[in-house]
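Design a sequence for this backbone.
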């Protein structure tokens, strides 16, 4: 396989990313692969060129001294793009996120290549480099920007590698949706073997630092920077000496806080016990490990802890603060100790010093064994598996020919290498999270995943249409999804929950508005409760909303009575009262409220029409029954009919007597 490793940092620079990339390149080469490194010049200003081996292309860059000498380069190199095209790469592996990292993504898009990204750095722990005034606001804003950039960076890759579970969990928290493989960075551990110790070199290193052969030497190797918490271990060592636990601390490395830490050592009066050795060439580092007795660090910003693994491979027990990344490296009492503070550190250090030589030897052997799984060959093989999967998925992809944005959805028009065409509807969130774009590609797995979700997308879209026409309760939406879509219960619950989370459905709001609307439409409390319970709202919520409004039930009932009177103008007063009472009860008013409302009726007009209405009623009854009955029988039916309509019997007798009757027996 022809592989391009893109990185902003590479040896002779000394740091974890540079070392990891170098080790990966060597291990992949040993496995028979053709590997090229695309990086920047360590000195920044030197013109772009290929190194003598023809395998490393370096770009011109600018050194940022405030950022610990980081060399920044342009995210686009036109001439280099053509040279990289001529390499006929099979895959691009991006190790960093900025200048060269951005260029890696450009190359992948322009050359139609799959890209794998390794997330080496927890950038949240580095915001102090741009937060010069130590502002909480700036720090929060910087962390949000980091999360967004990391998400975009990861989702534009075909696969992502994290060096630890801690880093993977962080990336998942950024909402990266690509496959994330946890692959600890491999190391060339053979060079750290304690059996290879050169006693002469050990003596020379100790002597150069002013340490005696029998001194207990603590070593910390790494960047002297704020995120590494070097000040913590300086205090640990100083407190240990003050407590009568003699030890010497050797700090190997350099960094932006070195001057500050040197000043701290002077303030503590520990110049003889704490020594700054400076940065050392890569090939000398194993000798420095072997010249010490234990490894100490308080860093909580590690994504894997490569120096911890090197220390273990050198047979050094670890004294460090707890971090999830280190949980697989530090076996308490067997390969090291977790220390909460200075007192805890001193306790563990005294306990270790008191052990027999045989027990210390056993611990050193445990340390070497603990580091064995982190060899570079196993690392390279694991990375190759990610390459192969990413390439296979990339070679079986759909190309996005066109897109059409529809409200909160995106319609994708796709075509594959077999000239098959498909349409796919995805949410705007999925579209953004997956880094989709016109001309981009999606794998068959991604296509299948989105296709499986499409029913849910269409169902969700249908819900939005219904809600835009009329507000709905949770139950109404749930019932519609169950009745009208093919979504399973789990999908329905997700859709309804999302609509609720976005505020598109809100039963509390719906209930409050519906109660006000129904009261305005002159419905009584009982009808309001029954109606809203049918929509899935709990009775307690409805009563609560009713109780928050002024009690105007009787006023509303009386208003409804006045509206009803005209429809009863041809009825008897008694029938009018009864009919209106019944209507009020049907609209949800209690019988007591209905009677009170009717009692307030002004019946002057109704009573004035009573006799005229009775005459019309009697005439109507006579006309209805005279085809069937005659004489007394007809009169009796008319009488009974008028009684049934609520008229007074005396008035009925008088009106009936006034009617003209054929064949009247009287």
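Sequence:
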């Amino acid at each position: 396989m022809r592989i391009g490793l893109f990185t902003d940092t590479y040896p002779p620079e000394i740091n974890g990313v540079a070392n990891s990339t170098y080790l990966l390149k060597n291990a992949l080469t040993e496995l028979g692969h053709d590997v090229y490194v695309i990086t920047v010049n360590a000195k920044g200003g030197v013109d772009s060129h290929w190194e003598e081996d023809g395998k490393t292309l370096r770009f011109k860059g600018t050194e940022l001294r405030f950022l610990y000498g980081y060399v920044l380069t342009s995210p686009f190199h036109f001439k280099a793009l053509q040279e990289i095209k001529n390499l006929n790469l099979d895959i691009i592996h991006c190790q960093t996120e900025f200048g060269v990292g951005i260029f890696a993504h450009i190359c992948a898009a322009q050359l139609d290549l799959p890209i794998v990204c390794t997330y080496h750095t927890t950038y949240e722990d580095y915001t102090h480099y741009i937060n010069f005034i130590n502002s909480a606001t700036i720090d929060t804003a910087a962390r949000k920007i980091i999360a967004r950039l990391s998400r975009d960076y990861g989702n534009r890759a075909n696969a992502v590698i994290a060096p630890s579970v801690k880093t993977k969990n962080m990336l998942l928290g950024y909402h990266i949706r690509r496959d994330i493989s946890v692959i600890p960075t491999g190391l060339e551990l053979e060079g750290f073997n304690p059996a290879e110790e050169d006693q002469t070199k050990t003596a020379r290193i100790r002597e150069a630092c002013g340490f005696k052969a029998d001194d207990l030497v603590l070593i910390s190797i790494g960047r002297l920077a704020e995120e590494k918490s070097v000040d913590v271990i300086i205090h640990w060592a100083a407190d240990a000496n003050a407590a009568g636990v003699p030890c010497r601390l050797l700090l190997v490395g350099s960094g932006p806080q070195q001057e500050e830490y040197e000043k701290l050592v002077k303030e503590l009066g520990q110049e003889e016990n704490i020594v700054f050795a400076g940065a050392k060439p890569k090939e000398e580092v194993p000798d420095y490990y072997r010249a010490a007795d234990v490894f100490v660090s308080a860093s909580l910003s590690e994504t894997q802890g490569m120096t911890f693994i090197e220390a273990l491979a050198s047979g050094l027990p670890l004294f460090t603060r707890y971090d999830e990344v280190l949980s697989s490296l530090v076996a308490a009492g067997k390969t090291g100790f977790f220390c909460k503070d200075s007192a805890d550190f001193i306790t563990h250090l005294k306990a270790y010093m008191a052990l027999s030589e045989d027990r210390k030897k056993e611990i050193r052997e445990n340390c070497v064994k603990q580091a064995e799984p982190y060899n570079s060959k196993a690392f390279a093989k694991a990375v190759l598996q990610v390459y192969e999967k990413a390439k296979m998925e990339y070679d079986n992809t759909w190309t996005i020919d066109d897109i059409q944005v529809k409200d909160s959805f995106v319609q994708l028009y796709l075509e594959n290498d077999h000239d098959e065409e498909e349409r796919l509807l995805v949410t705007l969130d999925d579209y953004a999270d997956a880094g989709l774009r016109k001309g981009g590609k999606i794998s068959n797995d991604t296509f299948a995943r989105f296709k499986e979700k499409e029913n849910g997308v269409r169902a969700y879209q249908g819900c939005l249409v219904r809600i835009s026409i009329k507000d709905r309760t949770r139950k109404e939406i749930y019932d519609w999804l169950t009745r009208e879509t093919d979504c399973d219960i789990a999908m329905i619950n997700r859709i309804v929950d999302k609509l609720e989370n976005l505020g598109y459905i809100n039963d509390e709001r719906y209930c409050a508005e519906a109660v006000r609307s129904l009261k305005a439409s002159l419905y009584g409390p009982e009808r309001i409760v029954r109606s809203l319970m049918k929509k899935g709202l709990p009775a307690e919520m409805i009563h609560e909303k009713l109780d928050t409004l002024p009690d105007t039930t009787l006023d509303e009932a009386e208003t409804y009575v006045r509206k009803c009177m005209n429809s009863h103008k041809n009825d008897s007063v008694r029938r009018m009262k009864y009919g209106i009472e019944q209507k009020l009860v049907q609209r949800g008013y209690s019988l007591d409220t209905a009677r009170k409302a009717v009692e307030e009726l002004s019946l002057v007009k109704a009573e004035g029409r009573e006799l005229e209405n009775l005459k019309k009623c009697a005439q109507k009854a006579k006309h209805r029954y005279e085809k069937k009955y005659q004489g007394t029988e007809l009169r009796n039916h008319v009488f009974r009919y008028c009684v049934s309509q609520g008229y007074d019997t005396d008035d009925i007798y008088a009106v009936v007597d006034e009617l003209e009757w054929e064949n009247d027996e009287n």
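Residues 125-133 have pLDDT under 50 and may be disordered.
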